Amino acid sequence: MERSSLSRLWIIAGVVLLMAIGAGGVALSRSRTRSHIPATTGTSSGVVAPEGVRIRVQVLNGTRTRGLARRATILLRDRGFDVVETGTSKAQADTTLVLDLSGHPDWAKRVASLFPPARIQARADSSRYLDVTVVVGSTWRPPAEPLNP
User: Which residues lie across from 98 on neighbouring strands?
Assistant: First the structure.
């Protein structure tokens, strides 16, 4: 190969490399300027905790899938609910169960709408520490998490 054609090949390779680096920099700067908007599920996109009310929620993972209680906690906190306790349920659940512990069925309904399909049960709690308990079932699919490289 001639020296001049070898030089041209190196120049073209350098230009292609610089273009790739520039495109990567543009993509990175665009991803950093977007505001974080939490992903939502279909029908529950507008559901948030009532303004000025502190709804204390306990989240229990009722499945063998690790991390579902954490994902549910993130979703609830993004929506303004006060998750005060997380853990694992001894009983396995297929469908998410939302327990109304404080006699506020509208609060339980708001929470349940974030975990379709979910069942709601009223259960009086004399301690008054928790308002709602969520036992996450295996049919719930958490919203996609944003990619944070």
Answer: 120, 134
Token pair for residue 136? 């996450």
The class of domain 51-136 in CATH terms is alpha beta
Task: Report pLDDT for 34.
Answer: 37
Q: Which residues pair with 83 in a beta bridge?
A: 57
Task: Tell me the pairing of strands 118-122 and 132-136.
Answer: unpaired
Sequence spans of domains, the chain: 1-34, 51-136
B/e letters for 83-101, b = 16+ CB within 10 Å, e = fewer, are beebeebeeebebbbbbbb
User: What does the pLDDT look like over 68-104, one tens digit per residue?
Assistant: 999 999 999 999 999 999 999 999 999 999 999 999 9
**Distance between CA atoms of residues 117 and 103, nearest Å:** 21
